[in-house]
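Quick one:
INPUT:
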């Protein structure tokens, strides 16, 4: 004779409670894992965007050169345009095989909430409205960008730095000493990229070469005077 044992109501309630606790633990763990995975992907994507900006910005500014071109009035002008929300510059690049030039002309701006760089192997002239027909590439550097702005540095008197919201060629004899780019993201945060420019011109020594030479000559003269007096120059 087989005896059948039935579960009591208390046992059923306890079993259901145990199952609910197990399901809650599994759900919480799964939710935590998913949130961590999502945050990790967002952090990686954010890091890639910042690295892309660093890569393009460093290459453009470090290799920037003062390149000139004649305008419609046969006047020689810099192929450079420093607006508050847009930047055009000339930079050197590595030459391969049949490349026609070692120069690249780059325009930085925001379109459709994207920070882009337009590259051309033919001069993009700031005094002409239309872009050249030889645009080689448009690179999307970062997305979800609300606005960008630029500031341009110039050496003032007494080795002080003066900043300008826009760079008017008529008011300056050279290109900026440094350029700062401010990127404002859609979430309201701002980030800044500041780089020195024009490593091949007089700005590479933070101002006039004559002033730097004069400073070195003064130091050398003082050092020699100290040695002639039997003194010891400190280093």
């Amino acid at each position: 004779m087989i005896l059948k044992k039935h579960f009591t109501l208390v046992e059923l309630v306890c079993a259901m409670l145990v199952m609910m606790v197990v399901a809650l633990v599994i759900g919480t763990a799964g939710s935590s894992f998913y949130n961590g995975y999502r945050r990790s992907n967002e952090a990686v994507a954010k890091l890639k965007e910042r690295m892309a900006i660093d890569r393009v910005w460093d290459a453009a500014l470090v290799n920037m050169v003062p390149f000139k071109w004649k305008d419609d009035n046969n006047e020689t002008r810099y192929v450079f345009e420093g607006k508050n929300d847009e930047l055009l510059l000339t930079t050197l690049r590595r030459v391969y095989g049949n490349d026609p030039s070692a120069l690249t002309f780059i325009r930085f701006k925001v379109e459709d909430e994207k920070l882009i760089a337009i590259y051309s192997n033919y001069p993009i002239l700031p005094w002409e409205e239309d872009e050249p027909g030889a645009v080689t590439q448009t690179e999307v550097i970062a997305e979800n960008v609300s606005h960008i702005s630029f500031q341009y540095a110039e050496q003032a008197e007494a080795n002080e730095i003066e900043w300008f919201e826009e760079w008017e060629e008529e008011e300056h004899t050279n290109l900026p000493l440094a350029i700062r780019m401010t990127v404002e993201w859609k979430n309201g945060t701002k980030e800044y990229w500041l780089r020195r420019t024009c490593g091949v011109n007089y700005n590479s020594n933070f101002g006039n070469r004559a002033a730097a030479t004069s400073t070195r000559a003064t130091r050398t003269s003082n050092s020699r005077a100290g040695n002639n007096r039997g003194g010891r120059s400190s280093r």
